Description:
The chain is α/β, with parallel strands linked by helices and 367 residues long. It has two domains: 1-112 and 265-367, 3-Layer(aba) Sandwich (Isopropylmalate Dehydrogenase), CATH 3.40.718.10; 130-258, Isopropylmalate Dehydrogenase. It has twelve helices and twelve strands. The strands form two sheets. Strands 2-1-3-12-11-4-5-10-8-9 form a ten-stranded mixed β-sheet, sandwiched between helices. The structure holds nicotinamide-adenine-dinucleotide, 3-isopropylmalic acid (IPM) and manganese (II) ion. Residues 76, 90, 93-94, 249, 286 line the site of 3-isopropylmalic acid. Substrate binds at residues 97, 107, 135, 225. It holds the Pfam family Iso_dh. It catalyses: (2R,3S)-3-isopropylmalate + NAD(+) = 4-methyl-2-oxopentanoate + CO2 + NADH.
Amino acid sequence: MANPSLLILPGDGIGPEVMSEVRKVIDWFAQNRGRAFDVSEDLVGGAAYDKHGTPLTDETMAAAQAADAVLLGAVGGPKYDDLDFSVKPERGLLRLRKEMDLFANLRPAQCFDALSDFSSLKPEIVAGLDIMIVRELTSGIYFGEPRGIVQEGNERVGINTQRYTESEIARVARAAFELARRRGNRVCSMEKANVMESGVLWRQVVTEVHQADYADVELSHMYADAGAMQLVRAPKQFDVIVTDNLFGDLLSDAAAMLTGSLGMLPSASLGAVMENGRPKALYEPVHGSAPDIAGQGKANPIACILSFAMALRYSFDAGEDAALLEKAVETVLADGVRTGDLMQGGDGTPVSTAQMGDAIVAALSRG
Ligand code: NAD
Ligand code: IPM
Ligand code: MN
């Protein structure tokens, strides 16, 4: 049987740097665990714009649709800030999410024991933290119409529209309940039903789906602003959080810092399950292209490497291999190996991106 296919889109800034380390991990699994992929690589974001004048060509879009899984680094950077909206690097990523219909974005926030001292919160508040944010990814204010900047009388008006259909809410709610059943069996849904009609509908539909099919899962609701507060006050109260596209973007960045660094957080963006039993899927770190440290070998590759672990688990039914990789990351952190983002001023010398990748591969080999 042919190997499963993996499309790699390194992107911009630190994207290619962290992706090089993932390639080492992919090679290790091929050589040592007989888990080979047909890997191809292509451009996305600013890199694609520089070459083709578009952040995602139709050919790359088609390759992503055809791949068994897509692995993306990061897109964007100051060089592209003044580009027209339609060709900005970020549009490439948004097009992938939309056209692949990747409606469920899983953003786990787990605090590794070795890093509990490093979080900006007290160690006892984050030690053992293991939550999963499920962010709706293909609708809401990111895609709603009307949108634009228009002239009204003598001033300009910026317009975006929050819009959710009940089927969009129901399918992401189902994804959250299904995940909860395999974890702590609790879902907290966050919206602003106190001020937004889309929030009222969100709460109603989540409740209906719960009553119809998931009454065994514990469901609670929270306004998203209160949820943000609770996330930093007592994050361990949560198991699965389900929320919309914009709130999920903000809450997952906040959750990332609970774990110590944005450089630690992976994500999986999943769509419908296809005939071959695999979901449409794109895996990427939560962080961006980090222009402030790009090109210096300082980036932490762990978020991207853990995104590959999520691919093993969710696309390739290789939970055991995913766990091996996660354990290797844990070992390396416990050994005190740290990129700069995981250190406070004055405590030792940070390792480079490549050294972190090498350390993780060495830990895999040690078993
Ligand atoms: P960012 O995530 O790129 O960086 C925020 C801060 O975190 C920076 O100080 C950066 O150095 C640090 N950081 C991020 N990842 C790190 C890592 N792996 N190792 C060490 N430090 C890390 O967010 P930003 O600065 O707001 O955005 C920069 C660009 O990235 C923008 O163009 C934005 O649109 C884009 N972006 C892309 C994605 C994506 O591709 N999924 C996500 C977020 C932002
Ligand atoms: C993320 C990013 C993206 C988002 C941007 C780059 C389009 O911030 O993946 O969290 O806003 O969704
Ligand atoms: Mn974001």
